[in-house]
Amino acid sequence: MKRYRALFIIALVLGLFFVFRQWKGSRRNIASDKTKNSTEFAQAKKIDSTSFSSNKEESLPIQPLKKEKIPAITNGQNVIFSVGGILKKGEIAWKKGTSFKFNDFICKIDETALFKKIAAEKVQYLDDSKSFLSFLATNLPETSAKWEQFFGKIDAAARVPKEPEFENVTEKIKYQELKLDVALSRIIDLEKQIENYYFIAPFDGTIVQIKKQLESKVKKSEIVVVIQKDDE
User: Fold this and answer.
1) What's the CA gap between 76 and 207, in Å, rounded?
2) Residue 65: predicted pLDDT
3) CB-side exposure of 13: number of CA atoms within 13 Å?
4) CB-based burial of residue 206 (10 Å sphere; 0-12 exposed, 13-18 middle, 19+ buried)?
């Protein structure tokens, strides 16, 4: 009888141990799923430099502004940049004799560092905006919607939208008190610098001389290519 009782106790202990292992494993899986979901959500909402693509085969992350046609240049035009860096390919072949059309993307200086800086500024701006939205929700709820919509449109791969109009002095003072106006101006100024990194064809023409090879380091104001306007 004692023998059966001992076996029963051993079986009970083993059973309880097995149940505990199963419960612990399920808890670990739940925690893992929560962490995974949390990480995926954070990655989906995060605005950072990974939102920008530096792949030369893909479209430009933030499109440079198109230019107006310029008068004919009979002796060719030296293409230079006001910034230095690594020379990258545009959307045409990088060789002498290549034809291009007005507004074609000819070449660029690697803009990765600039885009990272823009993204970081946007992250900080949106983080600082939380205090502003909280203030509006409590004190000026009628103005909250337009600002929530505005902040919601800010994206790493697009220029910042137009800032909403202020409806009253209190709203404007709080915005300035949090220095959100200064932060937004800083972002806009950085986005304006994007134009310095791209060369967009100012006319229909041809590459007549390659001065710098792709992936080489280019100094500020150094000639990278010479282009010629087509005869009309």
Assistant:
1) 9
2) 53
3) 6
4) middle
CA 36, CA 96: separation in Å to the nearest integer? 51
Three-class SS of the chain: CHHHHHHHHHHHHHHHHHHHHHHHHHHHHHHHHHHHHHHHHHHHHCCCHHHCCCCCCCCCCCCCCCCCCCCCCCCCEEECCCCCEEEEECCCCCCCCCEECCCCEEEEECCHHHHHHHHHHHHHHHHHHHHHHHHHHHHCHHHHHHHHHHHHHCCCCCCCCCCCCCCCHHHHHHHHHCCHHHHHHHHHHHHHHHHHHEEECCCCEEEEEECCCCCCEECCCCCCEEEEECCC
Lowest mean pLDDT among 39-43, 146-150, 192-196: 39-43
pLDDT at position 63 over 70: no
What share of the chain has pLDDT > 90, as a percent? Answer: 57
Average pLDDT over residues 49-76: 43
